[in-house]
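To close the chapter, one final illustration. This time we ask the reader to focus less on the individual chains and more on the assembly as a whole: which components sit near each other, and how the overall shape emerges from the parts.
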Amino acid sequence: MTEEIIIAGFGGQGVLSMGKILAYAGLMEGKEVTWMPAYGPEQRGGTANVTVIVSDDPVSSPILSSYDTAIVLNQPSLEKFEPKVKPGGTLIYDGYGIPEPPTRKDIDVYRIDAMDAAAEMNLIKTFNMIVLGGLLKIHPVVGIESVLAALRKTLPERHHHLIPKNEEAIRKGMEIIKKL
Amino acid sequence: MADQEITLMKGNEAIAHAAIRCGCDGYFGYPITPQSEVLETLAEQKPWETTGMVVLQAESEVSSINMVYGGASTGKKVMTSSSSPGVSLMQEGISYMAGAELPALIVNVMRGGPGLGTIQPSQSDYFQACKGGGHGDYHLIVLAPASVQEMADFVDLAFTLAFRYRNPAMILADGAIGQMMEKVVLPPFKPRRTEEEIIKECPWATTGRIGGRKPNIITSLELRSEEMEIINLRIQAKYREIEEKEVRYEEFMLDDAEYAIVAFGSAARIAKKSIEIARAQGIKVGLLRPITLWPFPTKEVQALASRVKGILSLEINAGQMVEDIRLAVEGAVPVRHFGRLGGIIPDPDEVVDVLKRSF
Amino acid sequence: MTREEIIEKGQVVYKKPALLNDTPMHYCPGCSHGVVHKLVAEVVEEMGMTEKTIAISPVGCAVFAYKYIDVDWQEAAHGRAPALASATKRLWPDRLVFTYQGDGDLACIGTAETIHALNRAENITIIFINNAIYGMTGGQMAPTTLLGMKTATCPYGREVSLHGYPLKITELAANLDGTCYVTRQSVHSVAAISRAKKAIRKAFEYSMQGKGSNLVEIVSTCNSGWKMSPEKANKWMEENMFAFYHLGDLKDTGADK
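The assembled structure is written out below.
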């Protein structure tokens, strides 16, 4: 199994940290992982994306031309990465940031209204975990237990009390993702 | 952190952890993207409270490298890291250290140039690293990591080689290897050498005239040409020995290969993916990855030329290593170059297209 | 006859320090470097630091300082001596570490290294020979060249509109929080030599006591570069150099620390 994923959106949406949790969860399951950010001078508000590869075999290139799954969280990212999903692959997008939805018919398109859900739950900061939950519902690349273990590993101790909220967000994401 | 624990970290962070663990005595650096995590990680880890390692943010790369020069003059295990424009500023100090025959580690996490260029990954400092860079007839021992694991492993290797030959060594990485996270097993902790051990192991070092020994002088200066030629010949003899003994490389799917890609660092990772794609299309291609860029695996590339119909040099630059490949191949088979510039990383599909078009 | 035979026992009223070896110096007759070398050697010896001293020589006339004083030396690139000294002292905190630099090395190409090493309060001493000219390269204008002074690169005299002002880097250093002892001395008379030696000793001691960085400027002559006899150079220095570069301590916080 090799899952090649791109996650793209605005800086500050938690794109990089979502990728990191995913990679860390893969690591904890003994898988091979790479996390390759498109880094830039932007700290917040600019575009951000990260390529995450989770595989049973050693990963060759951390940089890819096409992806099994693209998770896009704003319009420019959709425009950039929709064409790069492999035929038969998956595209997940959040309707909140994307007024013009994807058009390809040869891929599976899913919509997740994670921003709305995060606002409803009054948990804006767990937005990215809602999206991650959506991904895991469709492609269980890693188990939810591994994700929670990864959170325990990567979050500073003082934030550990937030882990249940993150779990709630992941489950919410699993619930609200829908195929178009 | 337990010794054998598998963890996930950036290449730059791995360099910092590996430095602490291999008994490094001092790090002197200056922030520059995309390598600042090295200094940041060291500052966060506070090794001065545990191993006693000195960590100092200098006022410039010029100062950093001269701090390394001073520290290396005393036999201590010292290092710096920077990215391309900063490494350009360091060339004077590197030349002095090569001339004074000092062991030290310089890490270059390359970005695209020339000039201020871009902060995105590049391999366009191959010439600078392997062909001198600074003034005078000298070489660095240049290691090219292709994974976060190798970023960690090459710190100790670079110091070992630097001290074995009393010559500065360089880890030539790029922004992709520095910024990406992969799993890594950090090397076990080695204690820093005691002052007594340093004095014993480095009798040439300026440690003070303990025991009333004769003064030690660290210098690259010799105004008498006849003497300077002798010094140069001795250094050149050392380089020939390094070329003989220290070539390192990796072969990948070369056994039945009709074509070969030669690539180092992150370009070698891309090459492996391209090879997977090409082989699925029936093209028999393999990879030779130089791990030491200097000394270059000249004999191995030469031998490769007798087995394959063509060689593609895949580099994230306008064609630098390809010159060394052509010198090794001596026209036996066609040698082509493909690279992207300005911080763009070639994607595996376009490499396959280039392979098809080239031969 | 050997030297020992010539010098009868009990007749010795003055001798050079043992650390100052017999290598003939390349300095011009009348140059101040020889005197300052002797003072440094004496102080290292008298402090009992012979086995624990690491010195850094510059690029400039004192590039070969390592040939004359028998301690461990590192020969730095032009201007970078304070960077070498910073690392050396941090890595070997119980060593006496000093640099020996000229005005071109310290106050021009190495200004950044000088200011930052001093302001980081590195526990080192910088011995700064200021003769207002580049001696080694044949008498070109230095950052400390006085207005009106003629050199190979300001043959009609230093002029503000062309060359700007002479740099009082020692005054600058005295204003840095990192410095402990900053002083300006000379070695043109027996009394001055005695004061300069005391200053070097104080600086070295402060550096060993961890009180911060120390700068000892020695206003010097360069009779070759100035194109004067040694005697005339001394006189010219007293009249012109001292008028601009005032002698004395600029800062001494050692007692408070």
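The first strand of chain B starts at residue 6 and ends at 10. The domain at 250-358 of chain B is CATH 3.40.50.920 (Rossmann fold). With these observations in hand, you are ready for the problems at the end of the chapter.
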